[in-house]
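Hi R.,

Here are the chain sequences for the assembly we discussed:
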Amino acid sequence: MEFIKKYPKAFQWLFLLIVFFALCFAIEVPETYKFIRGQAEFVKDPNQNFYIFLGKEVRYYPFDVFWRLPPLLGWLPIWINDSLFFLMNEWLPMEFWNEDTQSYKTRPLVLQITREVTSIMTFLIELIRDILLGGLKTIVAFTSWDFVGSNSWAKMPGLPWTIVTAGAAILAYKLSGKGLALFAGLVMVYISIFGQWKPSMQTLSFILVAAPLSFIFGLGLGIAAYKNKRVEKALYPILLVMQTMPQYAVLVPALVLFGVGDHAAVIITMIVAVPPMILLTLLGLRAVPPEVTEAGKMSGCNNWQIMFKVLIPTARRDILIGVNQVIMVCFSMAVISAFIGAKGLGFNLLLALNQLNIGLALEAGLCISLIAILLDKMSLAWANKQVDYFGNLTFFERNKNAYYFGIAAAIGIVLAYIGSFYFKEGYNYLFEVPHNKGISTADFWNRGVDWIFDTFFVYIKAFNTWLIVEVLQPMRALYLRMPAVATLVLVVGAGYLIGGIRSALVVCGLTLFIALSPWWDRALVTTYMATFGVLVSCIIGFTVGTLCFQNKNSAKFMLGVCDIFQTFPSFVYLIPVMMLFGITDTSVLIAVIVYATIPATRYTIEGLRSVPVALHDAATMSGVNKFQRLTKIEFPLAFPHMMLGLNQTIVFALFMVIIGAFIGTEDLGQYILKALSDKNGAGIGLTLGICVAFIGLIFDNLIRTWVDKRKKHLGIV
Amino acid sequence: MSNSVIKCENVYKIFGSNAKKMLQDSNGNVDAKTFQENGCIVGVNNASFEVSKGEMLVVMGLSGSGKSTLLRCISRLTDATGGKIFIEGQDLLKLNNKELIDLRRNKMGMVFQSFALLPHKTVVENIAFPLQIKGIEIEDSISKAMDMVKLVGLEGRENYFPRELSGGQQQRVGIARSLAVEPDIWFLDEPFSALDPLIRKEMQDEFLRLQEKLQKTIMFITHDFDEALKLADRIAIMKDGIIEQLDTPAKIVLNPATEYVRKFTEEVPREKVLLIEDVMDRSDTKNLSDLKVSKDETIENVAEKILSQDKTVAVIDSNKNIVGSINPTKIINTVFGGRKNNT
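And here is the predicted structure of the full complex:
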């Protein structure tokens, strides 16, 4: 009794766990239950039950409702599909002028709109590709194939790689200085001589279209949300879901609306890249001190002037950090979009992975990583660059970078011209190093992989088997052994204990959605993989973070490492693990662990760092030793921030688990991958994506609520 | 019509969703406590006063007393919940957005506690900002702004960015910006509170020098009673949204209206604040000493001379006419008498 009175919270948690386990033991596993693969595939089987809702027939294996809830939302994916189909092919047919046939043609409105958008995007991408790589599609767009065919001069020449390299270096110099300029130059030279120029420029052209458009839309919506509470409220849930939704689940509906190719990829990239831009715009505008706004008002600014002359310039840094985010999201989408046929580095990577040519994959992956680091550093340098006064400089000094670029361009053209004489036969290496004509290290890496396999195969295999048989399979069995009702009670109870009735309701809604979808078992598998990854990541991350924190330099170094690793598109992480562990669950889990350790480490260091100096001093003067200071002062205060790290770790782990489907897992990700190649996959893909997002949001809600309360309690906001 | 530039009649500012309705129901009897129980916070409670042309009204109060809120009502950065505000006879609350912007562009200037400079503009660009907003050509606005730079003594730093300036220098830019459009009305919201004591004193002197030259109508907000005494023509002391007393510094020091005001006046060095005029006897002009003191001197400056006299001392005005008298006992009583620990 004494104990209960003293620790009421602990008692409540204990009670919740007892109920949970009691339910687990009380509800028997039905004899017919096996890990069912067919639930969502609508095969006719006399053992199945079915119901009809909104005219859609849903078939499923019935169980005791306590064990597994019936898929009452099973109609949703079919309904989404049919609705999309109806929108695209039947809704609101209208007369549209057709340029090719010179006549009016009846087409549904949405189809026409998507086709218009598609053609604009295609034009933009091709314009930039023609500029960077040369080609004739832009000219064709303005004239016709006949015109180009009869005039051999009608071809964009493309920029020699030397000019693009010089341009990148000069831009980097302007933004940050010599160091970054050198790095930019080296990266571009590397890309070129290793024969990755063309795919790299294709990927770059993709970003050059997607990033500015995402920026404009994100800024616009961010301003609208800042101005109008209602817009913000309407956007908020979408932003929340988009942040936890695996990027690759969004690809599926894009396929239906915009087809396959670069244009579809650009559009879908914008859908993913706009939310972070909105958030950062909103954050930046909110952070402008109210007095600055008032000063603007008292200067007699009207609303327009307040926004564009006062608020946005003052929030410049946050908005440019948003640009950085947009660029990074665009880049990682550019890689993943290979799944829906976007050209570029991602496509080569995917191809190499499919052929199990690890060497080639590694080369493409390295290129991707280098470009990612470069883009990240350059956009961050832009954000951190202070405005300089240049009114007292001469015209030449003000525009010197433009002059340098002009000179570099002239030299580049001359070099390419000389090259055309020098390399008479074959390729003009001073113009462009063709793909697969550069230096390739693929064979070396492949041999390396073979050697690793030959030498360590026994150990790797033993480790693999041990991990799968002794750890992973029992863990998976335990997760699948949970009756649906028990899980629901546990999650909702946790919600209630942490955040009260409101939190409990939110969490309950999210869980019910997943439980009533046809993929509850798959979601459990996803959760089990993510849980395993998160546990290991957190142990590693918290330990490494704490150790690195002991020394200022090592902490700084570790944060730098985290920065760099975070810029890599998640897909890249699959390459080295496939190299070492082949195609198994272990590979996926290791990729998950590596990827998810980044936020765990980062937040640990940041959290420990944020402990006020005064408290350090006070503790030291009380005579604590290092260990006492860590356990009594630093950990308790840093813990809320570390929990936010846990939150990020979960999101990262979920992303990676889903992408791991590419290697072969049995979870939700596998179904998303399947939906990509299914013409009726849009509804399934979207619903699955929402399921994954909801798993993330359940934890997000619980952790955030707890952290907010805890921070309030500790008085740190 | 009186020559009041700013005129407030029963101004209320109440924060909260149903503030308007509660104010109507209360019939002008606003009790902060009952309002708070209903989720409303009273910012300004029934403020009525006038500021005449060229006068400096200092509103003094501790944090949360509603002084900044009052200023924001008058500059209409926030809309008052009830009451009337007139700026040069114009009903401020009835102006539409365009008229309001017009008023701010031509008649009002404001200085902020945290300086509120635009971080992406240089000193001179910051000062030229309100001019450019008005639509003045860039070159004209810059040359006008350069005059302002000189006025506040920042020559040579006109191309610096705010981040490169000290607090005092930043506030000079803020002052110059607020004066750039040559406003008639000048609002200052705790302009010197974020500065170090020494810099603060320097800026106060500078400010008095400027005001001597420019003769603006000023509302000055501060939480520093000494600052209020030093600068003000009249002081309004606020507490919980209510103006406790509004009077000249001397009258406040000599006759605090409430217990709250008296607490502030207790520690005031009266000999520095009060003028001979404030304490002299106007009726008794006979049998005076040969020593004559001007009525505009502070007590501090002439106390020694007066105390060395046996007789009552004559007080003269600027035309050397005798306007009153003062005797040494009065000086001693004023400076040392009436204090809590003495009684």
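Confidence is low (pLDDT under 50) at residues 37-41 of chain A. Chain A touches chain B through 22 residues (CB under 8 Å).

Let me know if anything looks off.

Best,
T.
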